[in-house]
Specification:
Chain A: Keywords: Membrane, Oxidoreductase, Transmembrane, Transmembrane helix. The complex is a heterodimer. By secondary structure, chain A is mainly alpha-helical. In chain A, 70% of the residues lie in helices and 3% in strands. Chain A has a domain of 226 residues. Chain A has a two-stranded antiparallel ribbon with strand order 1-2. In chain A, a hairpin with a 2-residue loop joins strand 1 and strand 2. The termini of chain B are far apart. Chain B contains 22 helices and five strands. Chain B has a domain of 209 residues. In chain B, helix 6 packs antiparallel against helix 7 and helix 16 packs antiparallel against helix 19. In chain B, strands 4-3-5 form a three-stranded antiparallel beta sheet. A two-stranded antiparallel sheet of chain B has the order 1-2. Classes of the chains: A mainly alpha, B mainly alpha. Chains A and B meet through helix 23 and helix 24 of A and helix 8, helix 11, helix 12 and helix 14 of B.
Chain lengths: 647, 549
Amino acid sequence: MENLIALLVAAPLLGAAVLLCGGRRLDRTGHWIGTVLAAVSFVVGAVLFVDMLGKGPEERTLTQHLFSWIPVEGFQADVAFQLDQLSMTFVLLITGVGSLIHLYSIGYMEHDERRRRFFGYLNLFLAAMLLLVLADNYLLLYVGWEGVGLASYLLIGFWQHKPSAATAAKKAFLVNRVGDMGLSIAIMLMFTTFGTFAFGPVLESTDKTSEGMLTAIALMLLLAACGKSAQVPLQSWLGDAMEGPTPVSALIHAATMVTAGVYLITRSGAIFNGAPDAQLAVVVVGAVTLLFGAIVGCAKDDIKKALAGSTMSQIGYMILAAGLGPVGYAFAIMHLVTHGFFKAGLFLGAGSVMHGMNDEVDMRKYGGLRKYMPVTFVTFGLGYLAIIGLPPFSGFWSKDKIIEAAFAQQSDLRSWIFGGVALLGAGITAYYMTRVMILTFFGEKRWQPAPDPDTAPSVEPGIEVHPGEMPHPHEAPKSMTIPMIVLAFGSVFAGAVFGIGERFVHWLEPVTSFEHPHPVVGVPVITTATIVVLLLGVGLAYLQYGRRPVPVVAPRGSLLTRAARRDLLQDDFNHVVLVRGGEHLTRSLVYLDHSLVDGVVNGTAASVGGLSGRLRRLQNGYARSYAVSMFGGAALLVAATLLMRAV
Amino acid sequence: MSASAVHSLWTTAAEPITRIDAPKFEYGQMSPTLIVLGAAIVGVLVEAFVPRKSRYYVQAFLSVVALAAAFAAVVALAAGGYGTTKARISAMGAIAVDGPSLFLQGTILLAGLVSVFTFAERRLDPEAHGNRVDSFAAQAASVPGSDSEKAAVKAGFTTTEVFPLVLFAIGGMLIFPAANDLLTLFIALEVFSLPLYLLCALARRKRLVSQEAAVKYFLLGAFASAFTLFGIALLYGYAGSVSYATIAQVVDGSIQNVTPALADTMGNDALLLIGAALLVMGLLFKVGAVPFHMWTPDVYQGAPTPVTGFMAAATKVAAFGALLRVLYVVLPGLRWDWRPVMWGVAIVTMLGGAIVAITQTDVKRLLAYSSIAHAGFILAGVIAMTPDGVSSVLFYLAAYSFVTIGAFAVVTLVRDAGGEATHLSKWAGLGRRSPLVAAVFAVFLLAFAGIPLTSGFAGKFAVFKAAAEGGAAPLVVIGVISSAVAAFFYIRVIVLMFFSEPKPEGPTVAVPSPLTMTAIGLGVAVTLVLGVAPQYFLDLAGQAGVFVR
C-alpha cells in the first residue's frame, strides 16, 4: 500500500511535464489530461485513506523510501515519503479541492489561448504541494516549498502582458524569498544541531536540545510560515496575488498553499513545544494578522481583495491556534480544512460573479444579482454562513474551538487579550462578509457599462468585452457550478462531521497530541459571546449597507477606512523602511566602494602600472644592454648559489 | 735521437690495437629523433633536386609525414613500456629513454606538427604576382628593399627551406630533454638553436625588424651558450665526467671508485657551485626566465608569427625538459643550494612578466611577456622537487603549447594593408566584426589567465598544488598574485575586442586555409578538453613523472 504514495505526487507531476512539454498539439485535450490526473491523485488519496481507516490509530503511518538523493559521508538526504494522519488530511484537501478547481477552470479558462499551459502550472502546483506535505524530511519539504512558490509565481503572473500581474508575481516571489530564507536557515540549524533533516530523529530529540537553539529554529520556521501564509509582517503580497486567475486565487491563495505555514508549524510541533517564547511570537503574529486582515477586508471594494483580506485573517486564526501548542494544533488543522471548503467556494462564487459581470471586480458596481445567478447566490451564501461561524455551519465548529482555546492560556492576562482579539475578529468577520454579501447580491442594480480594455488593465483577457456594453449577468456553465455545489456541501456539513464527538481531534491526536483547553470562563459563555458578537457584526453591516443606497463611487471615508483601503499602509511602510532604507544602504556602500575600495584598488593598479612603465624602459632594444643584464643575472645567480652554501 | 729509439717509438705506436668496440646504438629507442633528423636531411636534398614549383608541396608533405611518424614512434615506445617499467639509458649513456623524455618528445612533436600547419599557410598574404605566398621571405639572402628582392617576389619565390630548418630544430629539441650527458645536452642545444636563429630572420614583411630580432637572438643565444659551456667545463672539472649519473654520484658522495684525480677535485665546491649555476643559467635563458628574458619580447615580435608560435611552445617544452632533468637527475644532491636561488628566479619571473605585460601595446609583445610569466609559474612546479612537481610541469607544458600556438595562429589572421595588425589599438571592436575569431582568441586568453574550464586552470592548479606540497607555499601566494595581475591584461584584451567601438579603418580578418583552421581548432579543442576533463591527462603525466637515473 505504501508504494502508492509516490503515485500521489507522480500523477500531477506527469501531467505538468506532458502539458508543459507537449506543445500545441495538446491544446484541445490538455485541460482534460490535467483534470483527470488531478482526479487520479485524489482517487489514490481516497484509497490510501480507506486503508488507513482500517488500521489502529498507532499503526497508520506509512513510509516510502524512493532513493538516496544526496548520499555523502555525514550528510544523508533521502527522497522518502511519510503518510500519517496529518499528511492524509492535507492530501485529501489538496487533491479534492484541487480536482474540483481543475474542473471549474475548464469552464473559466475556456476562452484563454494558453489554457493548456494554465493546467500544466496547476498540475505542477499540485505535485509540489503534495511533495511538501508528504516529505519525510525538511530538505525534501523545502523542495516542495520552493515548488509551490514557483507555481504560485507562474500563476499570479499568468496574464503576464498585464503589468499589474507581472508586478504582483514579482512581489509575491520577492516577499516569499524572505520567508524561504528563514526556512533554509532553520534547516541548516537543524542539521548542525541534530545532524539530520528527517522528521523522526529531529522531532524525537528536541528534549535533549537547549531551549535557546529550539527557539532560534522555531523563530526561523515562523518566519518561513509568515512568508508563505501571508502573515504580518510578510503579508503584503497576498492582496496583489489576486491578479492571478480566480481559480488560482481559490486553490493556491485561499485553500492550500497559503496554509503551508500552518502545516509547517504543526508538523514541527515538538520544536515549538520546547520553545515557549517562540510560541508566544506565533500567537502574537496570528492575533495581529487576524485583525489586520479583517480590517483590510472591511474596506476593500474589490471582491477578490476583500476575500483575500479574509483569507489572511482566517489563517491568522489558524496560526494563533497552532501557537497554543497541543491545545490548538488539531483545531488549527480543522479550521484549515473547513476554511479550505468555504473559502474555495467563496472564491469560485466570486469568479462566477465576475464571469457574468464582464469581469468587473468592484462590488459597488454589482447589486441585486441573486435573481440572475441563483446557484452562485445559494452556494456563496452557504459559504458566507460558514465563514462567519453561524451554527451549525462548518466555520462555527472550528472557529469557536479556536476562540475557546485562545481563552485557555497559561496566564489570565494572555487569555483575556488573545481570547478577546479572537472574539473581536469573529465580529469583524461577520461585518465584512455581510458587506460583501449585501453589496453583491442584494440591493438595487448598480451595473456599469463595460470598461474599455485599453484603459482598464484589470480586465481578465480571453473574455469578450465590448466597451460600453451593459453586463448581462447569467449563471455559469455546469463545469463551474458543480464544483461550487460540491464545495457548498463541505461548507455546510464538514464542521459538524469533524466536530461532533471530537472525531477530527482524535483522528489527528497520534500525530499532534491533544490536550483539552480549560478556558478562563465557561465554554457556554464563550460560545454565546461569539454568537452575539457575530450577530452584532451582521447587524452593523446591514444598517450600513442594507438600509441605505450604496454609492457607486466610494466615499472618501474616515482615516482608518482610507488606511485600510491602502492595506493599512503596508506598502507605504515597506517602501519607507525597506526600499528607502535599502537604497540608503546601497548608496552608502557604493560610496564606500568608490572611495575606499576603489581607492585602494586603483591605487594598487596605478602603482603596478607605474612600475610596469618604468621596468619597460629597461627593454631598450639594444642587444648590448640585454647582454649586460644577462651577465649581471649570471653573476647574481652564481653569487647567490655560493652564498647559499656559505650560510 | 738514436735510430733504435725512433724504432721503438714507431713500433710502440704501431703495436696492434686488439679491437675497437663498435658503439652500441639502439635505433628503435632513438627512432623518433632519427625519423625527424632523417626527414630534415631529405628536405635538404629536396631543396637541391626538386623543381621549385613543387618544392612547397613535397616539403610540407614530408614534414607532416615525418612528424606524424615520429609521434607514432613515441606512442609505440610508450606503449611498449619504455616510459615506465622498461625505462633505460641508451646510446652508450647519451640518451635517456624514460617517461619524461617520451612525454616531452610527444608534446614537442605535436606542437611541431601543428606549427608546421601554420608554416605551410599560404592564403593569408595576398598573392604576389599570381603566386600564393606564405609568411616567409621570398629570398632570404636578398637585401630588404633591393632589386634582387623585388625580382624574387616577382618570380614568386618562397623560402621552402623553412621546413627542413624546423625539422632540424625539432630534432634538436627531441634530444634536449632526453640528453643524459652534458655534451649531448650542449650539442642538442646548438642543433635546435641555430635553425631557430635563421627562422627568425625570414619574415616576408617587416624584414628589417625580423633580421634585427634574429641577430639579437643569435648574439644573446651565443652569449648564453658560452655560459652553458663554461658551466659544463667546470662540472667536468669537478666530477671528471660529463655523464649525468656520475656527476650526481660525485655530488652526493656515493661514487664507488674514486681515482686520485677525482679525489683532488671533488672537494672543490666552488667548481661545482659555479658550474651548476652557469649551466642552469643557460637553460633559464632558453625558457625566458627573468633576468635572462630580455631577448624574448624583441624576438617574439620580430620573428614571423608562425615561428614565434613554434618557439614559444616547443622551445619552452624542450628547455624545461632539460632543466627538469638537470635539476632532478644531476643536481638533487645540491638542492639546498639551488632551491632558494630558483625561488628567487621564479618570483621575479612571475612578477616581472606579469607587471611589464600590463603596459604593452603590441599583441605579440604582450604574449611574449605572458610567456615569461608562464615560465615563472612552471618554475614554481619545477622547484617542488617531488614526482608531482614533474608531472604537473609536464601537464602544464602540454596544455600551454597548444594554447600558445593557437593564440599566435589567431594573430596571423588579423591583418591590414601592412600585414599582420599587431598593435592592440587595432583589435578594438574585433568581436563585432568577427565574433568567431574574437571568441576563439578570448578562449585562449582565458586559458592563459587560468580561468576554470580551460586547460590553463588545470595546469596552474597542478603546479601550484605541487609547489605548495613541496613546501613552497609563499611561492604559490606570489604566483596567485601574479596571476591576478596577469588576468588584468588578458581580460583587457577581451574587453577591447568585445566592448569597444570598432575603428572605421580597422584590420580585416583573413579567411585561412584548413591548415591554420586545424591549428586553431586543435588549440581550442585541447584547451577545453584539458580544462573540462583533465584527469586522464594528469594521470598520463603522473605515470610519466619518473626519471631514469
